[in-house]
Write a structure and sequence with these properties.
Helix content: 40-55%
Radius of gyration: 22 Å
Number of helices: 2
Shape: rod-shaped
Number of strands: 0
Oligomer: single chain
Structural class: mainly alpha
Order of helices and strands: HH
């Protein structure tokens, strides 16, 4: 009976860990198109695009 409890605990722990890794989308928030940005967001975006980061072509910036 002691071994059964250990085995069940190990299975439960494994299932929990696998479920945590099974997330499909790693992005916490959806990307906001430039047309839907607030004035403050647009100002920050324009400052980013004017700087050295804009030359990277990163999808996270664009």
């Amino acid at each position: 009976m002691k071994y059964l409890k250990i085995i069940l605990a190990a299975i439960a722990l494994t299932a929990t860990c696998l479920q945590a890794q099974a997330q499909d989308d790693q992005q916490r928030f959806k990307r906001i198109p430039v047309t839907e940005m607030s004035p403050a967001q647009k100002q920050y975006f324009d400052a980013l695009m004017a700087g050295p980061v804009s030359g990277t072509g990163s999808a996270a910036v664009v």
